[in-house]
Design a protein that fits this description.
Belongs to the major facilitator superfamily. Phosphate:H(+) symporter (TC 2.A.1.9) family. Belongs to the major facilitator superfamily. Sugar transporter (TC 2.A.1.1) family. GO terms for molecular function: carbohydrate transmembrane transporter activity; symporter activity. The chain is mainly α and about 500 residues long. It contains 22 helices and no strands. The longest helix is centred in the last third of the chain and has 53 residues. The two termini are about 25 Å apart.
Length: about 500
């Protein structure tokens, strides 16, 4: 497919569908942002220990592993659209349980249910958007879930700031319970969305798929070409010579291929699992969750000030993810990914230096506190330029059609597992080696991530989902210096 000579217009119908699907992700972002402040009041109100705080915070990520793992087969069975509805409904129940919790066990039950909903949402929104979007604007549209996660984080910070003056027994309940409100609207809005055309083709509903492609393409000719390409790919993937019946494909046999992959699929799995692993091993979720703790250690004591600083961080993060989303289809995935990982490594090293300096001082100088604030903002900003949006885009676009949902669910499950482990051990490890030591360690992780991205992540910009598979058929990608490191082609 040739590169366009002009800026590709965004199909308005595809944009509207992508926006609706991606709004589900605002629920995860809101939880991350609001929980960073709510735990301060929960700890006082329910009299829980620091270990219980870690379990409370990290449990959502660990439990989202269940939803992520199940979402692939679920979406192959009932469709992408209804899986998004299921995600919103599950999170709604979890938010209500958390808001009405009377003790730690009740609160944990809500976190478990909300976590399952988050797991479903994280996998299905990018997959649905990638399958619906035209190739030349897929980067922007598939990055929207991360945009909404970031906006949700900022919204959570604002709610923390606004409700922090209320009594401690009430404010945290409102903070976590308010997530139920958008969940209802999101689930209702998704009902007006079309189904993924690629899922429809796999189910043998060619006419329905053509109707969706006509709306998401610029002209009838483009819709026909996309339908022809999708249909051919589906027939090849499923090993059949005629259009499948409605009951032909329900995701059966996919895990067998993922467990015993061919060399090209092995390269895809390494790329998808690797980028998801490093997304969370970077410690970004933990840094966001525990930002108030980090800033308290840096010398910012007043809770109103703590929440005010987190709003600044949220604004920086939101601005950068919007910039990344709009430039993904122009500059490509690799350059922004490498820029983000290098920037995170430098920012985390700077944060480590600032934290180690402040650890040895009783009087905290303003310039050192300012350095830590700038370093944290830089870290989350570079994450939002690179790993944040690109992980979801890349994971949703590199798997073959028949394997996409369950392959993505496997990669996102690794993402959630690592996120949970990091979130649940961040404070414990930091207490042993100090925040400064923790940030130096995370900086080293990002150096390793940069090396991995350079050698194992090929460019996919401007390619249709069906063309991307050919990239992984070769050891070396044309026009780049990527070496996959496999002896068999």
């Amino acid at each position: 497919m040739e590169e366009p000579s002009r800026i590709t217009p965004i199909n308005k119908y595809a944009l509207a569908c992508a926006l609706l699907a991606s709004t589900n992700s605002i629920l995860l972002g809101y939880d991350i942002g609001v929980m960073s402040g709510a735990v301060l009041f929960i700890k006082d109100s329910l009299k829980i220990s620091s270990t219980q705080v870690e379990i409370l915070v990290g449990s959502l990520n660990v439990c989202s592993l269940i939803g992520s793992f199940a979402s692939g087969r679920t979406s192959d069975w009932i469709g992408r659209r209804y899986t998004i509805v299921l995600a919103g409904a599950t999170f709604f129940i979890g938010a209500l349980l958390m808001g009405f919790a009377t003790n730690f066990a009740f609160l944990m039950a809500g976190r478990v249910v909300a976590g399952i909903g988050v797991g479903y949402s994280l996998m299905i929104a990018p997959v649905y958007t990638a399958e619906l979007s035209p190739a030349m604007t897929r980067g922007l549209l598939t990055a929207l879930p991360e945009v909404f996660i970031t906006m949700g984080i900022l919204l959570g910070y604002v709610v923390n700031y606004a409700l922090s003056g209320l009594p401690a027994a009430i404010n945290w309940r409102l903070m976590v319970g308010l997530a139920a409100v958008p969940a209802v609207g999101i689930a209702a809005g998704v009902m007006f969305m079309p189904e993924s055309p690629r899922w429809l083709v796999m189910k043998g509903r060619i006419g329905n798929a053509k109707e969706v492609l006509m709306k998401t393409s610029e002209c009838e000719e483009e819709a026909h070409l996309r339908l022809e390409e999708i249909t051919k790919s589906a027939l090849d993937d499923m090993g059949v010579t005629c259009h499948p019946r409605d009951d032909t494909f329900r995701g059966q046999g996919v895990w067998r291929e993922l467990v015993r992959p061919s060399p090209p699929l092995r390269r895809i799995l390494i790329a998808a699992i690797g980028i998801n692993f490093f997304m969370q091993a970077s410690g970004n979720d933990a840094v966001v969750y525990y930002t108030p703790e980090v800033f308290k250690a840096a010398g910012i004591r007043h809770r109103k000030q703590l929440f005010g600083v987190t709003i600044i961080m949220g604004l920086a993060k939101t601005s950068c993810v919007l910039v990344s989303a709009f430039f993904l289809d122009r500059f490509g995935r690799r350059p922004l990914l490498l820029l983000g990982s290098v920037g995170m490594a430098i920012s985390l090293a700077g944060l480590g230096l600032g934290s180690r300096f402040l650890e040895h001082l009783d009087h905290k100088p303003a310039w050192a506190i300012g350095l830590c604030v700038v370093a944290v903002c830089a870290d989350v900003s570079f994450f939002s330029i690179g790993l944040g949006p690109i992980t979801w885009v890349y994971t949703s676009e590199i798997f073959p059609m028949r394997l996409r949902a369950q392959g993505s669910s496997l990669a996102v499950s690794v993402n959630r597992l690592v996120s949970g482990v990091v979130s649940m051990t961040f404070l414990t490890i930091s207490n042993e080696i100090t925040f400064g030591g923790m940030f130096f360690m995370l900086s080293g992780v990002m150096v390793a991530a940069t090396v991995f991205f350079y050698f194992f992540i090929p460019e996919t910009k401007g390619k249709s989902l069906e063309e991307i598979g050919a990239i992984f058929e070769r050891k070396d990608t044309e026009g780049s210096k990527i070496h996959y490191g496999f002896n068999n082609a």
